[in-house]
Task: structure prediction
Amino acid sequence: MILVTGAAGFIGFHLCKRLVADGYEVVGIDNLNAYYDPSLKEARLAILAGFKGFTFHRLDMCDYEGLRAIVDRHRPARICHLAAQAGVRYSLTNPFAYQKSNNEGFLSVLEIARCCRVENFVYASSSSVYGGNAKLPFSESDRVDNPLSLYAATKRSNELTAHCYSRLYGLNCSGLRFFTVYGPWGRPDMALFLFTKAILEGRPIEVFNGGKMKRNFTYVDDIVDGILLTLSHPLPSEIYNIGNSRAEDLMDFIGEIETNLGTKAAIDFRPMQAGDVPATIADIDKLSRLGYAPKTNIDAGVKRFVQWYRDYYRV
Ligand SMILES: NC(=O)c1ccc[n+]([C@@H]2O[C@H](COP(=O)([O-])OP(=O)(O)OC[C@H]3O[C@@H](n4cnc5c(N)ncnc54)[C@H](O)[C@@H]3O)[C@@H](O)[C@H]2O)c1
Result:
């Protein structure tokens, strides 16, 4: 039995789907909050409900007693903790949402992992912890004491807290620094979704830093592969970058969207946004040593996203 928090979220949904398809029993938790359209979360859950091995509980992670009751009932051997308040830009205007879900909620799930002596606790961190790091590509051995957003600061705090629990209580913990995840059922606040929607509605897209941005756009199935690898390698206290093997220029990524939509985007170039960074590029050697090998390039990945978007929204 594997407990997945954030099961109705973008990555959580794909992870749960893969796990149940592979024959695992999964208990999913999510509070279905309204950070973005909850109907998208409900639609993801409706798919998961079709699998025999999937059980869902709507719950806020900060509800420690509620979590405890669920864990006492299902006795998960492993936890994958993905639920969080995501998004760098939103953290500029809604700091308390991050304090609540990413600090208090994280501690609540970590305490559960400790009390229930789970074999492995894998949790979502973020490439944003590299903040103002000027050295590229970002490596796990780089210093990460220069966060540029509250979101990044909460994710770094999660890594330190998990490390502390590993040292104090012998809990196996692996933190995954995700690099710009995209794919079908993706998040409405992220670039691929925003750009696709705007182009189809004939609106200009907002591109920051004059488009001079580089990202390791990572297809969600590759992310799921990496999560499964770390779930099956319990280790005392590890951190892994989990990204694509090559970095793309944002303008090339936009070109891929245009090709798939058969339309040119009208671009509204904007200055760099506070909290954002011009390049996030992953050194993935460490996870590769466990066997991680991302397979999906942006041609195939963007195509699958656009097909899903057109089907789902009937455009
Ligand atoms: N998608 C990316 O590119 C990316 C990059 C770096 C890190 N991450 C991290 O990966 C994880 C998953 O991200 P995602 O893209 O699937 O985001 P998402 O927002 O789609 O999923 C997160 C889910 O957690 C749930 N949630 C939030 N607060 C909760 C709470 N207090 N109690 C219960 N449920 C709660 C939300 O309802 C949502 O369904 C997050 O921790 C995020 O910070 C994602």
